Amino acid sequence: MHRPADSHLLSNLVMHKKDYAKSLKSLQSPSHVLSVYVAACAPPLSNALLQVSAALGGADEALARYVDAVEECREHAARIKELEDDLSGVVRDREILITQLIKASKSVKTSRRDSVHRSSASTHSLSSGMSSPSSTHVHSIHVPTSSKLGAAQAELQACEVTLAQNGRALHHGRVEALRAGLGLQCHALMECSWVWAQVSKTALKALQDNAPPTPKRLPHAAEPFYIPAAHASPTRTRFLRNNTSCHDASRKSQFVGR
Questions:
Q1: pLDDT digits (tens, 9 = 90+) for 42-73
Q2: By the 8 A CB rule, do 24 and 66 touch?
Q3: pTM of the full predicted structure?
Q4: Is 58:210 a contact under the CB 8 Å cutoff?
Q5: Cα–Cα distances in Å, from 148 out to 89, 99, 171?
Protein backbone atom coordinates (compact mmCIF):
# COMPACT_ATOMS: atom_id res chain seq x y z
CA MET A 1 0.00 0.00 0.00
CA HIS A 2 0.96 3.64 -0.25
CA ARG A 3 3.73 4.94 2.03
CA PRO A 4 3.44 8.61 3.12
CA ALA A 5 5.78 10.89 1.22
CA ASP A 6 8.60 12.52 3.18
CA SER A 7 8.27 15.77 1.27
CA HIS A 8 10.36 17.82 3.69
CA LEU A 9 13.27 15.39 3.60
CA LEU A 10 13.18 15.16 -0.18
CA SER A 11 13.04 18.94 -0.52
CA ASN A 12 16.04 19.16 1.78
CA LEU A 13 17.92 16.69 -0.42
CA VAL A 14 17.15 18.67 -3.59
CA MET A 15 18.22 21.93 -1.94
CA HIS A 16 21.43 20.34 -0.65
CA LYS A 17 22.38 19.13 -4.13
CA LYS A 18 21.75 22.61 -5.51
CA ASP A 19 23.92 24.31 -2.86
CA TYR A 20 26.63 21.66 -3.24
CA ALA A 21 26.88 22.21 -6.99
CA LYS A 22 26.97 25.96 -6.46
CA SER A 23 29.83 25.62 -3.97
CA LEU A 24 31.82 23.42 -6.35
CA LYS A 25 31.37 25.93 -9.15
CA SER A 26 32.79 28.66 -6.93
CA LEU A 27 35.94 26.57 -6.43
CA GLN A 28 36.73 26.46 -10.14
CA SER A 29 39.51 28.90 -10.95
CA PRO A 30 40.72 29.75 -14.47
CA SER A 31 44.01 27.96 -15.09
CA HIS A 32 45.07 30.48 -17.75
CA VAL A 33 46.01 32.95 -14.99
CA LEU A 34 49.16 30.91 -14.36
CA SER A 35 49.99 30.75 -18.05
CA VAL A 36 49.76 34.55 -18.23
CA TYR A 37 52.27 34.85 -15.42
CA VAL A 38 54.73 32.74 -17.43
CA ALA A 39 55.59 35.86 -19.44
CA ALA A 40 57.37 37.24 -16.38
CA CYS A 41 59.52 34.12 -15.96
CA ALA A 42 62.56 32.88 -17.83
CA PRO A 43 63.35 29.32 -18.87
CA PRO A 44 63.48 26.69 -17.52
CA LEU A 45 60.90 27.93 -15.00
CA SER A 46 58.59 29.20 -17.76
CA ASN A 47 58.53 25.76 -19.40
CA ALA A 48 57.62 24.13 -16.12
CA LEU A 49 54.84 26.64 -15.43
CA LEU A 50 53.31 26.09 -18.87
CA GLN A 51 53.12 22.35 -18.25
CA VAL A 52 51.69 22.87 -14.78
CA SER A 53 49.08 25.29 -16.16
CA ALA A 54 47.96 22.72 -18.73
CA ALA A 55 47.73 20.06 -16.02
CA LEU A 56 45.63 22.31 -13.79
CA GLY A 57 43.35 23.00 -16.74
CA GLY A 58 42.68 19.27 -17.02
CA ALA A 59 41.85 19.16 -13.32
CA ASP A 60 39.33 21.99 -13.73
CA GLU A 61 37.67 20.19 -16.63
CA ALA A 62 37.30 17.03 -14.55
CA LEU A 63 35.79 19.05 -11.71
CA ALA A 64 33.34 20.68 -14.14
CA ARG A 65 32.17 17.22 -15.28
CA TYR A 66 31.63 16.22 -11.66
CA VAL A 67 29.57 19.36 -11.05
CA ASP A 68 27.40 18.46 -14.06
CA ALA A 69 26.85 15.01 -12.56
CA VAL A 70 25.75 16.56 -9.27
CA GLU A 71 23.25 18.71 -11.19
CA GLU A 72 21.86 15.63 -12.95
CA CYS A 73 21.53 13.86 -9.61
CA ARG A 74 19.53 16.82 -8.32
CA GLU A 75 17.23 16.62 -11.37
CA HIS A 76 16.57 12.94 -10.66
CA ALA A 77 15.65 13.81 -7.08
CA ALA A 78 13.33 16.53 -8.37
CA ARG A 79 11.51 13.91 -10.47
CA ILE A 80 10.83 11.97 -7.28
CA LYS A 81 9.34 15.15 -5.81
CA GLU A 82 6.97 15.39 -8.79
CA LEU A 83 5.80 11.80 -8.26
CA GLU A 84 5.24 12.46 -4.57
CA ASP A 85 3.24 15.59 -5.35
CA ASP A 86 1.02 13.62 -7.74
CA LEU A 87 0.42 10.98 -5.10
CA SER A 88 -0.34 13.62 -2.45
CA GLY A 89 -2.95 15.13 -4.76
CA VAL A 90 -4.67 11.76 -5.15
CA VAL A 91 -4.64 11.28 -1.36
CA ARG A 92 -6.35 14.65 -0.89
CA ASP A 93 -8.97 13.73 -3.50
CA ARG A 94 -9.56 10.45 -1.67
CA GLU A 95 -10.23 12.26 1.59
CA ILE A 96 -12.71 14.56 -0.16
CA LEU A 97 -14.50 11.61 -1.77
CA ILE A 98 -14.74 9.81 1.56
CA THR A 99 -16.36 12.88 3.11
CA GLN A 100 -18.82 13.13 0.23
CA LEU A 101 -19.65 9.44 0.55
CA ILE A 102 -20.39 9.83 4.25
CA LYS A 103 -22.68 12.79 3.58
CA ALA A 104 -24.44 10.89 0.79
CA SER A 105 -25.05 7.88 3.04
CA LYS A 106 -26.50 10.12 5.76
CA SER A 107 -28.84 11.78 3.28
CA VAL A 108 -30.05 8.36 2.12
CA LYS A 109 -30.87 7.37 5.71
CA THR A 110 -32.78 10.59 6.21
CA SER A 111 -34.64 10.06 2.92
CA ARG A 112 -35.64 6.53 3.90
CA ARG A 113 -36.86 7.70 7.30
CA ASP A 114 -38.99 10.38 5.65
CA SER A 115 -40.32 7.83 3.15
CA VAL A 116 -41.36 5.47 5.93
CA HIS A 117 -43.10 8.36 7.71
CA ARG A 118 -44.96 9.33 4.53
CA SER A 119 -45.87 5.69 3.96
CA SER A 120 -47.48 5.46 7.39
CA ALA A 121 -49.41 8.62 6.76
CA SER A 122 -50.63 7.31 3.40
CA THR A 123 -51.82 4.04 4.95
CA HIS A 124 -53.74 5.93 7.59
CA SER A 125 -55.41 8.13 5.01
CA LEU A 126 -56.23 5.07 2.89
CA SER A 127 -58.02 3.38 5.74
CA SER A 128 -59.92 6.59 6.43
CA GLY A 129 -60.86 6.89 2.76
CA MET A 130 -62.55 3.49 2.76
CA SER A 131 -65.11 4.79 5.25
CA SER A 132 -65.44 8.11 3.45
CA PRO A 133 -66.89 8.00 -0.05
CA SER A 134 -65.41 11.40 -0.87
CA SER A 135 -61.85 10.00 -0.82
CA THR A 136 -61.11 8.43 -4.22
CA HIS A 137 -57.23 8.80 -4.50
CA VAL A 138 -54.87 6.01 -3.35
CA HIS A 139 -51.17 6.96 -2.56
CA SER A 140 -48.58 4.38 -3.71
CA ILE A 141 -45.54 3.54 -1.46
CA HIS A 142 -42.15 4.28 -3.14
CA VAL A 143 -38.65 4.45 -1.47
CA PRO A 144 -36.23 6.31 -3.81
CA THR A 145 -32.56 5.19 -4.18
CA SER A 146 -29.90 7.94 -4.01
CA SER A 147 -27.99 8.46 -7.22
CA LYS A 148 -25.47 10.57 -5.31
CA LEU A 149 -24.52 7.61 -3.14
CA GLY A 150 -23.81 5.39 -6.14
CA ALA A 151 -21.79 8.12 -7.85
CA ALA A 152 -19.76 8.75 -4.70
CA GLN A 153 -19.00 5.05 -4.35
CA ALA A 154 -17.90 4.78 -7.98
CA GLU A 155 -15.65 7.85 -7.69
CA LEU A 156 -14.04 6.53 -4.52
CA GLN A 157 -13.35 3.14 -6.11
CA ALA A 158 -11.73 4.81 -9.14
CA CYS A 159 -9.66 6.98 -6.79
CA GLU A 160 -8.44 3.91 -4.91
CA VAL A 161 -7.27 2.36 -8.19
CA THR A 162 -5.43 5.56 -9.14
CA LEU A 163 -3.87 5.77 -5.66
CA ALA A 164 -2.52 2.23 -5.93
CA GLN A 165 -1.09 2.90 -9.39
CA ASN A 166 0.60 6.13 -8.29
CA GLY A 167 1.97 4.40 -5.21
CA ARG A 168 3.64 1.73 -7.34
CA ALA A 169 4.93 4.39 -9.76
CA LEU A 170 6.44 6.35 -6.87
CA HIS A 171 8.18 3.29 -5.47
CA HIS A 172 9.74 2.29 -8.78
CA GLY A 173 10.49 5.90 -9.70
CA ARG A 174 12.27 6.53 -6.40
CA VAL A 175 14.47 3.45 -6.81
CA GLU A 176 15.38 4.20 -10.41
CA ALA A 177 15.95 7.92 -9.85
CA LEU A 178 18.26 7.43 -6.87
CA ARG A 179 20.13 4.61 -8.56
CA ALA A 180 20.64 6.57 -11.78
CA GLY A 181 21.40 9.95 -10.18
CA LEU A 182 23.78 8.75 -7.50
CA GLY A 183 25.37 6.36 -9.98
CA LEU A 184 26.21 9.25 -12.31
CA GLN A 185 27.65 11.28 -9.44
CA CYS A 186 29.81 8.40 -8.16
CA HIS A 187 31.17 7.59 -11.63
CA ALA A 188 32.00 11.26 -12.22
CA LEU A 189 33.73 11.43 -8.84
CA MET A 190 35.79 8.35 -9.65
CA GLU A 191 36.81 9.84 -13.00
CA CYS A 192 37.62 13.18 -11.38
CA SER A 193 39.84 11.60 -8.75
CA TRP A 194 41.71 9.58 -11.39
CA VAL A 195 42.26 12.66 -13.57
CA TRP A 196 43.44 14.69 -10.59
CA ALA A 197 45.96 12.00 -9.67
CA GLN A 198 47.33 11.87 -13.22
CA VAL A 199 47.61 15.63 -13.73
CA SER A 200 49.24 15.98 -10.32
CA LYS A 201 51.93 13.52 -11.32
CA THR A 202 52.42 15.36 -14.62
CA ALA A 203 52.74 18.74 -12.89
CA LEU A 204 55.19 17.45 -10.28
CA LYS A 205 57.36 15.81 -12.95
CA ALA A 206 57.43 19.05 -14.92
CA LEU A 207 58.58 20.97 -11.88
CA GLN A 208 61.30 18.43 -11.09
CA ASP A 209 62.58 18.13 -14.67
CA ASN A 210 62.84 21.90 -15.16
CA ALA A 211 64.25 22.72 -11.74
CA PRO A 212 67.48 24.81 -11.83
CA PRO A 213 70.68 23.05 -10.78
CA THR A 214 71.43 23.25 -7.09
CA PRO A 215 74.73 25.10 -6.42
CA LYS A 216 77.41 23.09 -4.68
CA ARG A 217 78.20 24.10 -1.15
CA LEU A 218 81.77 25.18 -0.33
CA PRO A 219 83.63 23.55 2.59
CA HIS A 220 82.75 25.29 5.80
CA ALA A 221 85.59 27.40 7.16
CA ALA A 222 85.96 27.93 10.83
CA GLU A 223 85.08 31.45 11.86
CA PRO A 224 86.60 33.13 14.92
CA PHE A 225 84.35 33.41 17.86
CA TYR A 226 82.90 36.83 18.48
CA ILE A 227 81.61 38.08 21.78
CA PRO A 228 80.39 41.62 22.26
CA ALA A 229 82.83 43.71 24.26
CA ALA A 230 80.19 44.58 26.81
CA HIS A 231 79.77 40.89 27.77
CA ALA A 232 83.32 39.60 27.27
CA SER A 233 85.60 39.22 30.27
CA PRO A 234 89.40 39.66 29.79
CA THR A 235 90.09 36.03 30.78
CA ARG A 236 87.52 34.57 28.32
CA THR A 237 88.72 36.89 25.56
CA ARG A 238 92.33 35.71 25.92
CA PHE A 239 91.13 32.07 25.92
CA LEU A 240 89.16 32.46 22.71
CA ARG A 241 91.98 34.41 21.01
CA ASN A 242 94.52 31.70 21.89
CA ASN A 243 92.16 28.97 20.77
CA THR A 244 91.63 30.68 17.41
CA SER A 245 95.37 31.16 16.94
CA CYS A 246 96.01 27.48 17.60
CA HIS A 247 93.36 26.50 15.10
CA ASP A 248 94.85 28.77 12.41
CA ALA A 249 98.35 27.39 13.06
CA SER A 250 97.06 23.84 12.69
CA ARG A 251 95.45 24.67 9.31
CA LYS A 252 98.72 26.29 8.08
CA SER A 253 100.80 23.25 9.06
CA GLN A 254 98.40 20.97 7.18
CA PHE A 255 98.66 23.19 4.09
CA VAL A 256 102.51 23.21 4.22
CA GLY A 257 102.57 19.46 4.65
CA ARG A 258 100.65 19.09 1.43
A1: 888 888 888 888 888 899 999 999 999 999 99
A2: yes
A3: 0.60
A4: no
A5: 23, 13, 34
